[in-house]
Every structure is written in structure tokens, then in C-alpha cells.
């Protein structure tokens, strides 16, 4: 009893009760007793050591025993045998081999062979109900401390933990049939011989091969096989560049000749765009899964060198595919993300993407994450690259189980991947497979890793490749013969050689073979290319009126809204009666009319349901019933397309990437992302630069995503003023020095040739039209809209139904229509501007009574630059000075973009003078008085008709 008291004192009374086996009751003792008492089953009588045996067994078999919680720390995960996957070689006392703890329990070696009744909480016995203590220890260590390290006990769901325990503890679960082993060997042959073939043919080319983790190919194929078996029809993959060519060849099953021809040094793009390096490209393929004999569609999304940037893009594309298929539970469409260890731990977008995983409007019902754990970054030791024990620890924040596995044990890898796929299908949650491997070469084939990792790479040079290791194992157990193995190698080598011969045919060099999101039928009508025209974007007045009426009502009965919102809805109703709209109502009518035409609309971003400036209110909240909401937009017509408006997590990088991926899936949807303030797109710059601006040029990827960026200098300080239009304009691809050839279809052709469209609308009607034009164009381009803040409620910023009805269209330029336009010969100054500053200029012109001497023309579409309309406006006022006026500082905004284009269209015969704020480092002042002083200064200059006399250009 002294030992039991000792255990109780060390563990605590509650712990002793928890650990005690069935039938043993531990209590605090009766009055007068010296310590806890134990009621011992009659079958276990025989002295103090039997109590200890029971307690030791309970310690081993408790559902929260040390093996399950921390066994992964001593698992043999590193194929090289030189590193600890958790970066720590120290083994805590409670992780010392369990047999070493015998003395603590006053047990002897002979006690290990005693038989024990197994508790119902364990699965290690299988159909057996009793096991020796020795066998119990061995089975637990075999499950948790060998080539698989399991992290799952942090999951706060007992059912899920028990599900994982059953998959790994049950004896015999990792038994494979001869057929399965032979298939695994064949897949390893393809994976390794593909890399060997590339190394022989293009030894001096970068290819970011998979050597050292060849098992990733059968791993991915197993996930796909198992998912297909459970009903998945569409798998969307994202990955960095290491192993991409191998995945394209042996997972997606892209024609090898299409891959090999990319190594041709004389390769010329057979289609538009600059193209990209071969290990960045994507692919889309429909084929039969030979294991399940079911159709499967596989997409590998193109990704730049920014590694994890593709993560949210894949999730958005997956969400869209699920939406269009009506797959609310993710039983038909799923995603797989492949990561590198250093990037997975180091890049914040991984965290942002994980935090989208369970949000209602962003969940894809679980993703299988496969980490290729090279145990090194480019050249950086992991001990210098992360603070967490494992690179995968970020996944713990969403209770995703993490399965670490030694990548040189192919059967362990395959089993883990099968369980991961089953987990995703069962619980609709993320899961991580950590393939602990090595990089046989450096970061790329031209790199010398011995400079910085000499000890690791000395071991790698001696490491037997996984293919040989596994082949020797199967040959030894008579699963295959040496001849069969060699024939499998020769067979695949022959396939590669024949594809290499075909790759010389120049006819196959076509970048459209690399599309990851084809839109069948979109670019043609009856087999012929669409005409390069755009219909008018106006709609019938009765449709406008109907939308306005719904926008100003509450479609649900007994739904109590906020009194302040009642006033807003009343205002919408009043505007509808007056046949006019403000910014919010114009947007409502654009969305609503597209829904009527069967176009799905999705608006996403921080607080977009209400709108940052409390102007939108697309989701109404019942003031008396918690979580009861109403979206009137979804009550417009019985057979309308659905409208999705969703507040996002506080993320820009991840969410914009998600919406970009969503827009990739179909051209027949208007997908919009709104920044809370325009400058917040700064933290999504990677998506803008690498995917949106350049996507078509690099990957022939048309995309119609819309960015709504609130912009305007209103004395709010430097952080909430500028959406940085200069950045978007600098990345626009139209040539400032090329005098265009005007034609009948000049407007649409310009749009087709540009990489994106940049607008700053000054009227609600023009905003309405540009959103509708985005869908009615015969192609898709990203649209950047600098949206207003103060203009949302400006009394002058309203439009009549007459500017939106059938026959009307988006105005790239809004010319002067006042007194100055009636007598253009008398006009002394023509001011060009864009956006909100127009209203400041009009007010100042009226104050100075210069309506007939100064004309003001608004540039609504900035890029591509409307050369034809600007030329027409300048020629209309031949005697006027030309001025560009902007509220942004001179080194920001639009001036550096528009100036050379004005010079081109005017043949440098007339100057265009700059009026605005002086150059500055910050985009705006935070001092209200300073803001007003600078505003008055440049307005005075704009209407000082002698300001530029005597100056030359």
C-alpha cells in the first residue's frame, strides 16, 4: 500500500482515480486511516505489487497517456538518422522507454509477462481481451514511437481522438496486399525514374526535382485514390515548385512531351503572354482513376515563387467548384495543398488560410495538407528559421491532426495518407501529413549545399534511395522478383524516351495546354470566336424600380430592424420614387440586375455586409432574435441567381487570394473583394502583383475579379486616404508612347489588350455601368475601382434613372456639359480630373463665377487610357490651357501616368499643366487644418487663369 500512496501523492488523488483500472477504487480514505484505500478485484489479489501492476497498466493505457500525447517526440522520423524532427534531442523522463519505469512501480522483469485484462478504452488488443504487460508496452511504442509520430491529443473532441486511435492502434491495420505493394513500388519507380530522366537529359537546367522525397508521388496518388473511393470527383491542388514537374507527370498525368518541350532552349510562346518557367505552371485534366475506375478531374493551380501564396487561391477555387455543384458538404470537390517545411512555418498566409477553414462563407470542408519536410530551408537551419518544435505547429490552431511520418518508409506514408483522406471525408476538417525527408540536391540542381550543410549532405551522399530500399524489401519477401522490378524500370524509361522524341514536334508548343482553369464554351459561340463588341449596359426602368423597391423593404414578416436603418430604407424608397440613385443604391441595382440575368454575385471583405461607412446594409439583423438575418437581394425574383455577401476574417492577403481563386472557377460570376480602406490592399500586394496584374501574361488566365478600394483625401490622415492608384497604373501594360490606330471597336480592343482596367467613377450611374460591363464583355479582365468615401452621401453625387436605362453605357470620359461646353471657343482653361476632386472643382468654379471660362472633364476610366475621347475633348477647346488636377500629391496619384499619354495624343504640341499637392512622402496629412489649407491652395491655382503664363514645357 505504501507504493500506492506514493503514486497517489506524486500524481495527485484525482489523477490516481483517473488512472486506476476498472474495479480499483481510489479514495481519500476514511476517518482515522493513514491514506487512500483501494478496493482490489478478487482476481487480482496477492500483495502490493499487483496494485502497482494495475496502476502501471492504467498509466500505459489511459486515453491521455504519455505515448499518445508525446510519443511523437521520440518517433524515428528522420530518414537520415541525424536530426530530431522536433528540433530537440532531450527526452523528458516520462518519455523514457516504459520498461525503464518498472522500478518506480516496484515491478520486476518477471512481471512483464503477466497477463492483464485490457480496458475498453484501448484498441491495441484488437480481438484479444488480455495481453502481457510486455506486449502492451511493445504495441504502444510500435504505434506511437516508430516511423509515425501522431499529434492529435490537443483536439478537444473525444470522438475524433478515439477515431484516430482506432486507425493506428488496432493490430494489423498497416498490412498491405501484394497488389498494393506492387502498385506502390510501380509509383515509386515512376517518381524516381522521372527525376533521373530529367537529370540525364538536362543536367544543367533548374528543375527543382523531388529527389529525397520521391514518396510524395505515391502519397498524393493515395490521397486521391482514397478520396475517389469515397465519392470525390474533383481535386484541386496547390504546391510550390519543388516536385511540380513530377506531380504534373505522374499525378495529374500531363503528357510527358508537353513537359519535355518546355526544356527546349529555342521554345517560343505559341500564344499570347510572356509565359512562365515550367515549374510554376498549372494544369487541368479529366481522366479515369485506375484504382477506383471512376472519373476524376484534377487541377494543379499555377503558382509563382512566392510558395504559399497559392494556398488561399486553391481554397477559393475549391469553394467555387463546390458552390456550382451544390456540394455544400464537400463530398464531391476537395483540395490538397503541398507545402515546404520552412515556408509552412514562416509565411503568414498559411495562418490566414487555416483561419478561413471553418468560416461558413470560406470553408472547403477540409483540406489535406502535405508538408515536404526537407529539414532545411534554402540554406537556413530550421533551428534558425522557426520557434516552434515542428514546422506544422500552425495547424494546431484549428485542431487539425498532424501525422508526422518517416518518408523513407513508403508503407507508413501510404497508410498515413489513406487515414488523412478518410479523416477529411469523415469530419470535414483539415489534416496535415508531415513527410519528414531530405533534399538530395541543394535548393535547385545548380546549388551547392555542402557550403552550409556539410554534415547533412555527407550523410545524404551515403543514403540509400527509397526506391532501392523498398524494392530490396519486396524482393526479399517474394512480393516481386528482381526481373519484374527491372522490367518496371525499363518500361517507364521507354515511355520517357518515346515522349522525348515526340517533344521535338513544334506543333505541341502551345501555352493553353497549361491552363489550370479552362472555361469551355465561354470564348466561342457556335464554335466561332466571340465578336469583340460589348452591348449597352443599361436596363429597363421597371427593373430599376423593382430593385429599388426591394432594396428599401424587409421581405420577411415579423422582422424588427434598427430604427436608424428604417430611415435609410425610407431614403432608398424616396430616391426610387424620384428616379434617382446614390452610390449604394446604384451598386444594389447593378448586383440585382445581374442576378436577374443568372449571374452569381459574391461580395467579400472586412465588414462588407454593412459596409465600412455604413452605407450598404445588404444584410439586415433582427433586433430581437439573435442571429436572425435577412438578405433582401436574395428576394428579388423567384428564379434569380444567388447573392453571397460575407464579412471576412481580418485578412487581406488570404481573403483576396481566396476571392481570386473563386473568380477563376467560372466566368459567369461577378466576384468582388472590398478593402475596408483602400490602402489595406498593401498587405495583399503579393496576390495583386503575382496573380492579378500578371496572371494572363504568365498563365493565360483570364480573371474578372473586382477590387473595390475606398480612396480620397479627406483629412483622415495618411493611413485611410490613398488606395495608391499610382501602383496600379504603373503596372498597367498600355504603351504611353504609342499613338493608337482608332477603329470602330477601339474601346473593346483596348480592354482586350490590357492586363487590367482601372477606373475612378464620379457618378453612381457610371459605377453601375462599369460593374455590369464587367460581365457583358466577351472576355474577363481584373477591374480596379477606386470607390469614394464622402461621396457615398454627397448630395451632388447622385444619378438619374435616365443615365441607367436601356441604351445607356459606361462613360470612359464625362465631358463638360455646362455653359463652357456651349461656347468652347471662349474657354480659357480645360481641367481634366478624376474622382471626388471633381466636386471640389465645380464648387470652386461656381464660387469664382468662371462657368463659361473653365471647362471640367472627368476621366472615369484611367487605364487603358481613353486616347480617342481625350483627343476629342482637347480639340473641342483649341484655345484653352490644359490642366491636370488631382488631390493626391504630385509623386502619387495619376499624373505620372496621364502626362506622357497626353503628350502622345497631342503630338507634344500643347502642354498639360499639373495642379495638385506638392510631392510628399506620406499620402496625406493627419491634421485637418493642414488638409484644408493644401486643398484651398491647389484649388486657387486651378482657377488662376494667369498661373502658367510665361512658362514653357
TrEMBL record:
Chain ranges of the Transketolase-like pyrimidine-binding domain: 581-794
UniProt keyword Magnesium, yes or no: yes
Q: Which GO terms describe its biological process?
A: glycolytic process; tricarboxylic acid cycle
Keyword field:
Calcium, Glycolysis, Magnesium, Metal-binding, Mitochondrion, Oxidoreductase, Thiamine pyrophosphate, Transit peptide
Q: Where is this region: Disordered?
A: 24-47
**SUPFAM superfamilies assigned to the protein according to its UniProt record, in alphabetical order:** Thiamin diphosphate-binding fold (THDP-binding)
Question: Mind telling me which InterPro entries this protein's record contains?
Answer: 2oxoglutarate_DH_E1, DH_E1, KGD_C_sf, ODO-1/KGD_C, THDP-binding, Transketolase-like_Pyr-bd
UniProt superkingdom = Eukaryota
Task: Quote a single Gene Ontology cellular component term.
Answer: mitochondrial matrix
Q: Which cofactor does it need?
A: thiamine diphosphate; Mg(2+)
The entry's localization annotation reads:
Mitochondrion matrix
Q: What is its EC number?
A: 1.2.4.2
- Regions of compositional bias (Low complexity) in chain numbering: 24-37
A Pfam family the protein falls into: OxoGdeHyase_C
| GO MF entries | metal ion binding; oxoglutarate dehydrogenase (succinyl-transferring) activity; thiamine pyrophosphate binding
- Catalytic reaction annotation: N(6)-[(R)-lipoyl]-L-lysyl-[protein] + 2-oxoglutarate + H(+) = N(6)-[(R)-S(8)-succinyldihydrolipoyl]-L-lysyl-[protein] + CO2
Q: Assembly state and interactors?
A: The OGDHC complex comprises multiple copies of three catalytic enzyme components, the 2-oxoglutarate dehydrogenase (OGDH/E1), the dihydrolipoamide dehydrogenase (DLST/E2) and the dihydrolipoamide dehydrogenase (DLD/E3). OGDHL/E1-like isoenzyme may replace OGDH in the OGDHC complex in the brain. The presence of either ODGH/E1 or ODGHL/E1-like isoenzyme in the complex may depend on its tissular distribution.
Name the PANTHER family on file: 2-OXOGLUTARATE DEHYDROGENASE, 2-OXOGLUTARATE DEHYDROGENASE-LIKE, MITOCHONDRIAL
Family in the record: Belongs to the alpha-ketoglutarate dehydrogenase family.
Q: What does this protein do?
A: 2-oxoglutarate dehydrogenase (E1-like) component of the 2-oxoglutarate dehydrogenase multienzyme complex (OGDHC) which mediates the decarboxylation of alpha-ketoglutarate in the tricarboxylic acid cycle. The OGDHC complex catalyzes the overall conversion of 2-oxoglutarate to succinyl-CoA and CO(2) while reducing NAD(+) to NADH. The OGDHC complex is mainly active in the mitochondrion. Involved in the inhibition of cell proliferation and in apoptosis.
Checking NCBIfam families in the record gives: 2oxo_dh_E1 (TIGR00239), PRK09404.1 (NF006914), PRK12270.1 (NF008907)
Provide the protein name. 2-oxoglutarate dehydrogenase-like, mitochondrial
In its UniProt entry, the species of origin is given as: Pipistrellus kuhlii
